[in-house]
Write a structure and sequence with these properties.
75% helix; single chain; mainly alpha; elongated
Length: 155
């Protein structure tokens, strides 16, 4: 019990040292010495981190797809940049989904929210009126994740 109390306080005092001690306990099979409460929280945090990253990447993808499609004044100057950013975001999403395929369902769950968030950001960035953009997502999830799909440029 004393060891667990020491490890719990180590977590608060020196996170890196706590991680190294936890790894050592796991490697040596010293499970009694593990700070399970913080270890469980950290493992859950890893899963949450992937979800936050997917949410961010999907939102960013929508932002750039919307700018690509509707920000005519900047198309010539930023077309290559937007294409590169979209490609980068999609590679990152595919990488996360390769490691955790079960998270594809999560993308479906957050799809509409990510579009709405992106819409707010793009309206602020472009200073275009909100009614310039569609109220609902410009594509379905499969299209957005398809590196060869791009919405038509609005004229």
């Amino acid at each position: 019990m004393n060891q667990i109390s020491h490890e719990a306080s180590l977590y608060d005092r020196d996170y890196h040292l706590w991680v190294m001690a936890t790894v050592k306990h796991l490697e040596t099979g010293d499970f009694e010495a593990l700070d399970l409460e913080n270890l469980i929280a950290e493992v859950l945090g890893l899963a949450a981190m992937d979800k936050r990253e997917l949410r961010n990447l999907l939102r960013l993808s929508f932002e750039h797809l919307l700018m690509w499609q509707y920000w005519e004044a900047e198309t010539e100057r930023n077309r290559g940049y937007w294409l590169g950013e979209i490609a980068n975001f999609l590679m990152e999403i595919r990488g996360i989904l390769m490691d955790s395929p079960s998270l594809k369902n999560y993308l479906s769950e957050i799809f509409d929210d990510c579009y709405e968030d992106a819409l707010k950001i793009v309206v602020a960035k472009t200073e275009l009126p909100l009614d310039t953009f569609p109220e609902k997502a410009i594509a379905n999830l499969e299209e957005v994740l398809d590196e060869n799909w791009f919405p038509p440029v609005s004229k």
